[in-house]
Amino acid sequence: MKNLLKMLDLSSEEIIDILNLADQLKYELKHGIPHPHLKGKTLGMIFQKASTRTRVSFETGMYQLGGYPLFLSSNDLQIGRGEPVQDTARVLSRYLDGIMIRTFEQKEVEDLAQYGSIPIINGLTDFCHPCQVLADLMTIREFKGSFDGLKMCFIGDGNNMANSLIVGCLKVGMSVAIACPDDYQPPKEIIDFAKGYGDKFEMTNSPVQAAKNADVLITDVWASMGQEGEAEKRRKAFAGYQINDDLMAQAHSDAMVLHCLPAHREEEITEKVFEAHANEIFEEAENRLHAQKAVMVKLMAN
Ligand code: CP
Ligand code: NVA
């Protein structure tokens, strides 16, 4: 494992290895056991989109590992004025030990990895959000004990979260059902991958159908970053694609609910369901820290 660009690149064994290390680092942090695996190392964090969790968890995580994080807003970098990513990659590789980048196009992240010589971590693109899904898998295993026999259901937009959840959940052995409106399905590359898992993958436009006997229900915003101009159109297209009490009644009675956050109450999830599952959702947010520390150690430790 040289980079974390997308869940499609990871083997099932690599995912489980990261989750095991994340559990260990969480234990060490909670018990005051120092774990300075990245002492003296630097991580550049390039942000072309807003962030609360990704920025703070990477920054704090790097500090806890003994390293130094640099926040690099694209507004202040030459990349924001058109310097090619190929050049940025080759320059930053000479200063830093790793780069985390949040941007629009997946190609930009892949190019950074191709031209740079240090590990690249995808902190969200329009295509995927692997760091979030590693934290989600960590949280599912923490609450459910194992992935065996579990069904994950995703309701809403076939977006970056849906893409990474489909791949990640199938790779660890879960069944996956997604319910998206016809015009908002995941890209062909993801659907083709999922079809390889036979009847462990189901795609429908009926949230009720997808939620039947689910163990984990997940949703995300109807309009992602960069799609603000489509918000009104999307509000109409996604009406009914909501996690609410009626939908929860389709799932197992002990089903958990996750949301990567930020959440829009009464759009993709009701306030009532959100608050009933707040302990899971905020553990998920915390687990960003532990999962990303594990990724950084795997990629950047000597
Ligand atoms: N879930 C997530 O990535 O949150 P931020 O956008 O706040 O980083
Ligand atoms: N799909 C959302 C996820 C935010 C963490 C977005 O891309 O804005």
TrEMBL record:
List ligand-binding residues for L-ornithine: N160, D220, S224, M225
Could you say which EC number(s) this protein's record lists? 2.1.3.3
Protein name per the record: Ornithine carbamoyltransferase
Task: Name the principal localization, coarsely classed.
Answer: cytoplasm
Task: Name the residues that bind carbamoyl phosphate.
Answer: S51, T52, R53, T54, Q78, R102, H129, P130, C131, Q132, C260, L261, R288
Please name the top-level EC class of this enzyme.
transferase
An annotated GO cellular component of this protein is: cytoplasm
Where in the cell?
Answer: Cytoplasm
Task: State a single Gene Ontology molecular function.
Answer: amino acid binding
**InterPro entries reported in the protein's UniProt record:** Asp/Orn_carbamoyltranf_P-bd, Asp/Orn_carbamoylTrfase, Asp/Orn_carbamoylTrfase_sf, Asp_carbamoyltransf_Asp/Orn-bd, Orn/put_carbamltrans, OTCase_ArgI
What does the similarity note say? Answer: Belongs to the aspartate/ornithine carbamoyltransferase superfamily. OTCase family.
- TM spans, by residue? none
Q: Which organism is it from?
A: Ruminococcus flavefaciens 007c
Query: Which reactions does this protein catalyse?
Result: carbamoyl phosphate + L-ornithine = L-citrulline + phosphate + H(+)
**What single Pfam family name could you report for this chain, choosing any that match?**
OTCace_N
UniProt key word Transferase: yes
Q: Where is the Aspartate/ornithine carbamoyltransferase Asp/Orn-binding domain?
A: 148-297
